[in-house]
Specification:
Elements (H helix, E strand, L loop, with lengths): L1 E5 L5 H10 L3 E5 L2 H5 L3 E4 L4 H11 L1 H10 L4 E4 L1 H6 E5 L9 E6 L10 E5 L8 E5 L4 E5 L4 E6 L2 E7 L2 E4 L10 H11 L11
Parallel strand pairs: 1-2, 1-3, 3-4, 4-12, 5-6
Antiparallel strand pairs: 6-9, 7-8, 10-11, 11-12
The structure holds glutamine.
Length: 198
């Protein structure tokens, strides 16, 4: 099982470190060929406008949409969640439009450092630690999207089938709950790299 991590900017190395502590193998994804070797994909935080431009230039934009359509799990954190949303505001921008929700960029204003909050999460008994860095706010979600964590009553971690999105940075805490959940989605999906030998 290989988890691809979009590795053009942002905190991709922090995701790789969490996956390593969980015993999962990761791969830095910069090309369509890299994506083809991956069973699942993480879209990390960073700057969604920059990432979007890179995806379009490299042909990864369409390749990721096809990857999602095959049922392969994708986890977007912060800028990655913005890329997954169908509607982006503040300002509006194109997106992969895979997860039917409206998201407001830089929802916490021009935040320079990180803010840490604790909120309820269905994946664990205790409140989940959530680190926000110029994080987006999920304004609305379509029916059928499950809310897994909240802050001040608004969703911060949502899922629909193979797609998971967090407005915060679970890779910057010592709590692997969210990544463990993502790995559980992968074990339930079809493998990308193994084809039957004849
Ligand atoms: N505000 C950034 C954006 O709109 C996301 C910030 C982050 O990923 N930490 O792309």
């Amino acid at each position: 099982m290989i988890i691809g991590i979009l590795s053009i900017q942002g905190d991709f190395a922090a995701h790789a470190a969490v996956l390593q502590t969980l015993g999962a193998q990761s791969l830095e994804v910069r090309t369509v060929a890299d994506l083809r070797q991956s069973d699942a994909l993480i879209l990390p935080g960073g700057e969604s406008t920059t990432q979007l431009q890179f995806l379009q230039e490299e042909g990864l934009f369409d390749a990721i949409c096809q990857f999602a359509a095959k049922g392969r799990p994708i986890f977007g954190t912060c800028a990655g969640a913005i890329l997954l949303a169908t509607h982006v505001k503040n300002p509006p921008q194109p997106s992969l439009a895979l997860l039917d929700m409206t998201i407001l960029r830089n929802g916490y204003g021009r935040q320079l450092a990180s803010d840490v909050f604790f909120g309820p999460c269905t994946l664990k008994k205790d409140p989940l630690e959530m680190v926000f860095i110029r994080g987006p706010i999920i304004e609305s979600i379509a029916p059928g999207i499950t809310v897994l964590a909240k802050l001040h009553g608004s969703p911060t971690l949502v899922q629909k089938n193979n797609l998971l999105a967090a407005t915060f940075h679970p890779e910057l805490t010592n709590d692997p709950t969210v990544h463990k959940h993502f790995l559980s989605l992968i074990s339930n999906s079809a493998p990308a790299t193994k084809s039957p030998r004849l």
